[in-house]
């Protein structure tokens, strides 16, 4: 089973929030939405360790940082994977 969550953050807090979400390790996808449009969609590998996910996401985090510099506020949509999903895959 998976669940979706949405967070509204300021541009200056965006990169830190995305890093925090990646480190949680139970994230399948992160989508950045600005003014109702999905601008960046970040798929994450299920089962990857937080450290590996961060290394793999480094170029994406650079793009997120550039995006954050352009917006004052955006929404982060997170698709989480619950523990039972990880065991089934």
Binned, the helix content reads 40-55%
Structural class from helices and strands?
Answer: alpha+beta
The end-to-end span amounts to 11 Å
Number of domains: 1
Low-confidence stretches: none
Output the helix-strand order. EHEEHHEH
Mean pLDDT: 77
Strand content: 35-45%
Q: Could you explain the architecture of this structure?
A:
The protein is an alpha+beta fold. It has one domain (2-88). It is built from four helices and four strands, in the order βαββααβα. It has helices at 14-24, 50-56, 58-70, 83-88; strands at 2-10, 27-34, 37-43, 73-81. A four-stranded antiparallel beta sheet has the order 1-4-2-3. The protein is globular and about 35 Å long. The termini are close together. The model has no long low-confidence stretch (mean pLDDT 77).
SSE inventory with pairings:
Blueprint: E1 2-10, H1 14-24, E2 27-34, E3 37-43, H2 50-56, H3 58-70, E4 73-81, H4 83-88
Main features:
alpha+beta; 4 helices; 89 residues; 4-stranded antiparallel sheet; 4 strands
Brief characterization of the structure:
Helix content is 42%, strand content 37%.
């Amino acid at each position: 089973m998976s669940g979706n969550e949405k967070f509204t953050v300021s541009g200056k807090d965006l990169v830190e929030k995305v890093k925090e979400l990646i480190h949680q390790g139970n994230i399948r996808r992160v989508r950045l939405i600005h003014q109702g449009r999905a601008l960046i969609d970040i798929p994450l590998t299920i089962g990857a360790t937080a450290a590996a996910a961060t290394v793999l996401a480094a170029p994406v985090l650079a793009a997120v940082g550039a995006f954050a510099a352009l917006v004052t506020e955006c929404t982060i949509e997170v698709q989480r994977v619950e523990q039972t999903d990880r065991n089934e895959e």
